[in-house]
Specification:
Blueprint: E1 15-17, E2 28-32, H1 45-53, E3 64-68, H2 77-87, E4 93-96, H3 99-113, E5 123-127, H4 135-146, E6 152-157, E7 160-166
Helix pairs in contact: 1-2, 3-4
Length: about 170
C-alpha cells in the first residue's frame, strides 16, 4: 500500500537498554534509628539492647533493609553493629543509608552482574529520561560495561538520540 506508515525504529537492529530494567524486584524497607532512641535523640545502651533482643523481626525476613537515622542524633558504631547482627541472618541485604542509597546499591549490583556481551557488535541505545536522582552514576556504570562490546552507543530515545561512541573500523 502506498503511503503506508512504517515504524522504522521497531524494524531496526537497534538494541535498547532501559536503566530501570536493572532495578530488581527486591522488597525494600527502612529502619529509622531514631525510633530506638529516648526522645528520638539519646541512646541508652541498656534500653537499646533490650529493644533489640525483643525486636519482632518477622517483617524483615528476605527484605532489603536500609538503616538510617533521620535526625541529627549521634549513634555509636556498635549500635548499628548490634542491630545489623540481629537482622543479618534473616534479611536479604542490609545497608547503612536511606532507601535511595539502598536502591542505588541494588541497581549497581545488578549492572555489575549483568552479562553485557549480549550486545557484542550491536548498535545500542541507552534509554534516557529517567526520574531517578542518582541516574548519572548508573549511566556511567552501564557505559563502562558496554563499551568493550557494542559497535555503537547512543543515548536518548530511538526517535532522537545523541551519539556517544562508535567503534572505528
Amino acid at each position: 500500500m502506498k503511503g503506508e506508515i512504517v515504524n522504522r525504529v521497531s524494524n531496526s537492529s537497534l538494541e535498547t537498554i532501559d536503566i530501570k530494567s536493572f532495578k530488581g524486584s527486591e522488597d525494600l524497607i527502612s529502619i529509622d534509628f531514631k525510633d530506638f532512641l529516648k526522645n528520638e535523640f539519646v541512646l541508652i545502651e541498656k534500653d537499646f539492647r533490650k529493644t533489640i533482643s525483643t525486636l519482632d523481626t518477622s517483617k524483615y525476613i528476605n527484605k532489603c533493609i536500609a538503616i538510617n537515622c533521620s535526625n541529627d542524633a549521634i549513634i555509636p558504631p556498635w549500635a548499628y553493629m548490634l542491630l545489623v547482627s540481629k537482622l543479618e541472618k534473616i534479611a536479604k541485604k542490609i545497608e547503612l543509608g536511606d532507601l535511595e542509597y539502598l536502591e542505588k546499591i541494588i541497581f549497581l549490583e545488578n549492572i555489575n552482574t549483568f552479562d553485557f556481551s549480549i550486545y557484542n557488535k550491536k548498535k545500542v541505545i541507552i534509554k534516557g529520561c529517567s526520574d531517578l536522582n542518582y541516574v548519572n552514576s548508573l549511566y556511567s556504570e552501564i557505559i563502562k560495561k558496554i563499551l568493550p562490546f557494542a559497535d555503537s552507543i547512543m543515548y536518548g530515545e530511538p526517535c532522537s538520540t545523541v551519539p556517544i561512541f562508535k567503534k572505528k573500523k
